[in-house]
Amino acid sequence: MVLYKLLSIFFGFSSLLLLTTSYETSNSLNILMPDVVASHIDDYLCASFEMDKEKATYITAFNPAATSKDAHHVLLFGCTEPGSKENIWNCGEMANSDESSEMKYETGPTCASGSTIIYAWAMDAEKTELPKDVAFKVGGSTSIKYLVLQVHYANIDKFIAGKTDRSGLVLTTSSLPTPKTAGVLLLSTDGEMAPHSLELFEVACKIQQDIIMHPFAFRTHAHKLGLVNSGYRVRGKNDDQEWTEIGRRSPQLPQMFYPIEKDVAIQQGDYVAAACTMLNTNSHIVRIGPTGNDEMCNFYMMYWVDGDQLLNEDVCSSSGPPRYYFGRDRHLNVDKIPEEAFHIPPPPNGPAPGENLQGGHHMMMQHKEQSHKRRFHYESID
User: What's the whole-model pTM score?
Assistant: First the structure.
């Protein structure tokens, strides 16, 4: 009886100690704009946050603290050096040079060196939690000495009214190392589309590095004209080539990272490819660019690796239409591309029947035959 009581006390104390340790190693890190004031619609503002250089921090969840009314999107970068020594600055590659004299903050790039994409948010997406034993490793001995928050402002009504902004992210962090490390690969294109036309923006890159990646979440991003974005692992050659879907979603739905349902391991020699189907309903050419009147074709793939060796290059890009299509890459067998790659998926990755999405035209494209457009591109290349 005495032994039973002693064991009960011991295990009770051990459980309490475990809970206390877990509680103490899980923290919140606020990565928020420090009461900034945007001057123009489509301003891109950045703020930097220095990480602990002595000890690594492990990010296990991303909690948005922003609304689509204020922010078109929020991006989180890891930098060796931030793009400015100022706490707040206009992110240089997105700043409008014609209005630079009117800007409240100085202009600079997102990162001065060592840029790494960590997270992206838009359209009132919900929080993202990483799988068990997976985390983004920042600070310490890593090349990520700073986190840089970038906010693309959708309107300036609150600033005209005299208010400031604290949009951003609340990160769940831990000081405990994880056996698996998370990374993000961004696939994006340049290019343009003619007035009143259906167009395909495509990009593919070969994985040259000796690495095995396990994609576990994906995110799509486009502006008003995007219909569907899809991502694929491409393995093999010629008639033996296989295109395996990583993720497919309408970019007109909330743009959070969504779970990938199956393990699509990607290794050296594989290709990673993405396609964005867009419909230009305007009477003018629309180009890829930073403002809400331009377009973007982005497919984000969040992955984990055993250990901490991530991709050395985390951006895969192409020149887009009319210069680049899959059919112009001799390593890609376009006959193996799944037909549904260019179709808007059913819910939850596409709109519900009768749902009216931004732009109003997205539902009718579900009934339009996409393959004719693809044959036109590939048959005209010979």
Answer: 0.82
